[in-house]
Amino acid sequence: MERTAVLTPAEEGGYIALNPETGTTTQGETVEEAVANLQEATALYLSVFPLATRGHPVITTFCVPAHA
């Protein structure tokens, strides 16, 4: 089952990883470690709270205007 991972740099170093479909969040020192930790956390979550598959989420970006 394919899920989405959103990774952002953590202030203290490494990455914070989020799965938006389930809300599971974890971290890791590298992208690979963060994704592996997220896979484990999401699998554990889904073993308790299964989700119906509704297709892939649409991922996009947007700009927020800076205040002058």
Distance between the termini: 45 Å
Class from secondary-structure proportions: alpha+beta
Categorize the overall geometry.
Answer: flat
**How many helical elements?**
1
CATH structural class = Alpha Beta
Query: Approximately how much beta-strand content do the residues carry?
Result: 15-25%
Number of domains: 1
Indicate the low-confidence ranges by residue numbers. none
Secondary structure: helix percent = 25-40%
Largest sheet geometry:
3 strands, antiparallel
Spatial sequence of strands, sheet with the most strands:
1-2-3
| Count of individual beta strands | 3
Write the layout of secondary structure elements.
Elements: E1 6-9, E2 15-19, E3 24-28, H1 31-48
Antiparallel strand pairs: 1-2, 2-3
Can you give me a brief rundown of this structure?
This protein has one helix and three strands, in the order E-E-E-H. It is an alpha+beta fold and 68 residues long.
Report on the architecture of this protein.
- The protein is α+β, with helices and mostly antiparallel strands and 68 residues long.
- The protein has one domain: Double Stranded RNA Binding Domain (2-Layer Sandwich).
- 26% of the residues lie in helices and 21% in strands.
- It has 1 helix and 3 strands, in the order βββα.
- The protein has a 3-stranded antiparallel sheet, with helices on one face.
- Strand 1 and strand 2 form a beta hairpin.
- The longest helix is centred in the middle third of the chain and has 18 residues, at 31-48.
- The chain is flat.
